[in-house]
Amino acid sequence: MSAATQGSGLVRTRLEATALMLPIYIYYSIFLVLPYMLMFYLSIQRYDPVELYSNDIDFSNYVDVVTDPFYLGLFARTIGISLFVTVVTVIMGYPLAISITSARGKLKAFMMILVLSPLLVNLVVRSYAWLVLLGDNGVINSAVMALGLTDEPLAINRNWISVSLGLIHISLPLMVLSLVAIMERFDKSVFEAARSLGAGEWRILTRLHMPLALPGIAAGSLLVFCTVISTFVTPQLLGGHRFSTISTVIYQKFTFSLNWPLGATLAFLLLAINALVIFAHGMMFRERHRERAAQ
Amino acid sequence: MNSRGVQLASFLVLVFLIFPLIVIIGASFTTTPYVQFPPTGFTLKWYGDLVGRSDFLQSFIDSVVIGLVTVAGVGIVGTPTALSLRFGPERGRQVLRSFVTAPLTLPTIVTAVALLQVYYVSGLDFPWIAVTLGHILVTLPYYIRTLGAGLESLDPSALEAAESLGASRKRIFFKIIMPGVVPSIFAGMIFVFITSFDQVTMSIFFSSGSFMPLPIRIFSYIEFAIDPMIAAVSTLLIVVAFVAVIFMQKAMGLERGFAA
């Protein structure tokens, strides 16, 4: 055995390790690095209605976006709803995570299946479910009107309410997973000690439980925020043309209006917001967080 | 900590998560021509309608084929990567891991439009290949992480023993490593297939009237109409998802499968 052996037995030299990585290097170069470079190049070109884009290279698209009240509003709206959804998932996820952590055996497995299964249900199907619930003739409005509480359908569809509900529904499991992961590591005796010293439940929760859970709350919030801010399906189906987000406008620029340079600019700005949030989180918690949901 | 109030709140949150899915399943059996919950009567008419829709059938077949090719591609590219990350030199491993999982950190819609642009420049007209390449890209990190978790849980003393007794690398690979990670590979492949089958954001930019994976077919349908037939197809997808979750739990435990 050579000196380069790492005690692994299978991969014996750095060259071999690199050779095994070769397929992914090639794949990412062609289908990840190259496309991003090309898209950046596209974002610094000018839109041309005839040829799709012309070769005047400058940063005017970026300047246009950050000086246009429409796009500033779009960014404020998207970031605002993402923050709102993140806070709500913490509030909703926290008690559920406590219950799951203190449950045992079959009950625990059952609760985990209920939390995780929606993650594997198609995004379109989950949005469709909310359309059925919230539509003007939907389940909720039919019930409310049958009870005679209102004559007109409630304004709960194709606005921030429907988009928020859909986004909370898709991101809540991610928050619960992060919270359960940290609560599983808690030393239960700490809480018993606090209780025996006469601390009330509320005091234990706010002074002990939540501070201990903070890294999990932060990890879950990062995961939820980054997922929600770039999700496309849910706002497209539940917001329609009346409630657009950065993602739905990118979609629109690339499919209907064909203003690709502007779409590419928006895509890079969305990427920049994600990067900033991840960087800020890393600075605050000094932990590695690579988790992120699909879509 | 787990007081009555917490339990009640947990119950309500679980209802919030599951109720929309129950509404869909219920509505798929309604005899009314529009979506209704609780359903009126009971009929399998909407499932029958679905069978007669050749466009939905074609979309379903397209999605299955794309999913299978994605699983194969991810296995070919991802397996050596996971082996290298586990058994290669310690130095630089962290950087390589971040690089390998990059597609998870990048918003899918951004990656999708970037690929769309390359596809456009290339002048090719094989949308399903473009979609499959995109699916491989966004699912590779999941597979590498699931397989990586399996490789980490191998007993190092068994590897050392085999090595010190002079077992060939082929023997170590086939007799110790492979048998130990088959459940991880299996769980990873199920997860990749489901993720590919459900993928919307990556697929929608390459879809057209003549090529539409199933989720895009449903997507474009419900932008204009909400009828019980969509509830029927959605119910089928919900059932598949639950079966997959139970399968994954059997294969390697739920939390590990998802946390991987």
How would you sum up this structure, described in words?
The complex is a heterodimer of chains A (295) and B (260). With 295 residues, chain A is mostly helical. Helix content of chain A is 73%, strand content 2%. In chain A, strand 1 and strand 2 (52-54) form a beta hairpin. In chain A, 44% of the residues are buried. By secondary structure, chain B is mainly alpha-helical. Helices cover 77% and strands 0% of the residues of chain B. Chain B has helices at 4-27, 45-51, 54-87, 93-100, 102-105, 108-122, 127-152, 156-164, 169-198, 201-204, 214-222, 228-252, 254-259. In chain B, helix 1 packs across helix 12 and helix 9 (169-198) packs antiparallel against helix 12. The longest helix of chain B has 34 residues, at 54-87. The chains are: A mainly alpha (295), B mainly alpha (260). Chains A and B meet through helix 1, helix 3, helix 4, helix 5 and helix 7 of A and helix 1, helix 3, helix 4, helix 5 and helix 6 of B.
What is the end-to-end distance of chain B?
A: 29 Å
Which protein chains make the most extensive interface, counting residues with beta carbons within 8 Å of the other chain's beta carbons? A-B, 99 and 103 residues
Instruction: Specify the helix fraction band of chain B.
Output: over 70%
Total strands of chain A: 2
Give helix and strand order of chain B, one letter per element, not per position: HHHHHHHHHHHHH
Show unreliable segments of chain A.
Answer: 1-7, 287-295
How many strands in all of chain B? 0
- SSE sequence of chain A, one letter per element: HEEHHHHHHHHHHH
Q: What is the residue-mean pLDDT of chain A, rounded to a whole number?
A: 88
Multimeric state: heterodimer
Number of helices of chain B: 13
